[in-house]
Amino acid sequence: MLPETLVCLLTSSIVFAQTTQQLSLNAVASFNTLTLPNPPSFSIPSNDNKLTVSVALCTDSNTAPRFFLSNASTTKNPGSSGGEGVIEIALQNGRGNWTGLFENGVLAVESNGAQVSFDVGVSDSGPIHEVLNDLPFFGDTTSNQALLFSPPFAKPFVQVPTYPNYTLPIASLAFTDTPPSSPPNYTLVLSPTSSSSLTSGPQTGCFLSSQNITGTIANQSLWLRDEEGWRVQWLLEGLSPSTNYTAYAIQDGTKVAGPIYFATKSPSFPCPLVAFLPFCPAVSHAVPLPAPPSGTIYDSTNLPQTNLTSALLTYLTNFTVTLTTFACGRDHYSPLVECSDCQREYRKWLCAVSFSRCGEPSLGSPSAFTAFPATPTQTGLSALKSLMPPIPGIGGGPSQKQKQQQQVVLSALLPQTTPRNPSLPEMDYTLLLPCLETCTAVDRACPPFLLFQCPTRKFNAAASYGVGYVDGADGDEGEGVAGVAQDRWGNVWCHLG
């Protein structure tokens, strides 16, 4: 016969399990502190592997509930008073998680008087609620439109040509991959930055998804922008001119990507957006063209075919024919790159220089741009503007470190009247120069016999490209004055293609 104390303990465990709601594995459960059970506890399913319990606040409140875990059979209602094996899930920006083994797991909630909705997820493959490392991608804007992308997913299958078949993608199609059958469900959340409560509230999918979106989503579709993977592409309309916006992409209602920031152009901005081009999939920016004859942007259905598109496809076809005369895949010219890499980088460069990108100075720094072309011998230091005026009559001057701290990065913007691409019409606009790295990527990826060469930093590169923004003066990757072509804060220094 079992001891009486053990019988009582087993009986109480069975009763507790029968009266306590069990959380489901790999699922999300929604609750409200006003309607919690008594006691406010939930049992965690047993599993031989580690489980992650994550919580996310869905409403903003000055007082947040507290969440406690226990895996001890003697602790049925863990809380702030402590107890055997009690662990608190610490919340940061409205979310928190804890991972471990559970046999008699219990999650308890202390409301602390808060009236808050919250979600709980239990998973055997990492936290259900989290902030993703990858950010949404900003394409470009007009005065009332924007092109935005989700983080990449589902990398495409790229067929590397092998001997003796040196087939590369045709000029009119950059990728032959088909869209994934089960893509993540992404939701775009957008609001003017000045009036936005997005960043001040819980940074959780359920809170952000409940906020109103600004503008109208005119198009939402899957798009393979580059080799990083498929993305969800959004075309937004009905935005306000000269306005800063904050944007998030929410995956499956629980995972947060962002925030990123961007600004719409001024009401007089002259250039329309161009996107949805299968031969130039990375083109998603404003181009110096007249207003589109049909629709609100240019795409593959209404883009002028006579000059702009036909010339680009001819160049790419001829380049591919010349490239495939080399024994790609048999007599390797590099241990790092193939002929397919060469064609891909050349396509990016050709699309970047063919579809010139319009721009204008940022709202916060209207004078922070290069108003005149750089001299032929200017290097990346032309991207810096000193904020420290000279002090007359005082010797010594600031140190080099102080000078660097008192400098602002200038976007590579140049006023234009005559287009650099003769297939584009003449019009007054401000050109955002392509990054020099768009050209050097081709130089690095292609075999020497093609004789593809980029202008050098020491002589005339700065006259045609944004120099020194991404890579350093000696070519060190990411060591330029900005380190990137654009950042999450809406700064676009040069056009990477």
What does this structure look like?
It contains six helices and 24 strands. The chain has 497 residues and is an alpha+beta fold. It folds into two domains: 4-130, Jelly Rolls, CATH 2.60.120; 137-386 and 402-463, no CATH class. The strands form seven sheets. It has a five-stranded mixed β-sheet with strand order 1-3-8-5-6, with helices on one face. A four-stranded antiparallel β-sheet has the order 2-9-4-7. A four-stranded mixed β-sheet has the order 10-17-16-13. Helix 3 runs antiparallel to helix 4 and helix 4 (339-354) packs antiparallel against helix 6 (436-445). The longest helix has 19 residues, at 305-323.
The count of DSSP E runs of length 2 or more, i.e. the number of strands, is 24
Give a short account of the largest sheet. 5 strands, mixed
Contiguous low-pLDDT stretches (5 residues minimum) are 5-18, 388-405
Average pLDDT metric: 85
Tally of separate helices: 6
Strand content: 15-25%
| Shape assignment | elongated
Measured as a percent range, the helix fraction is 10-25%
User: How many discrete domains?
Assistant: 2
End-to-end distance: 79 Å
Strand order of the largest sheet: 1-3-8-5-6
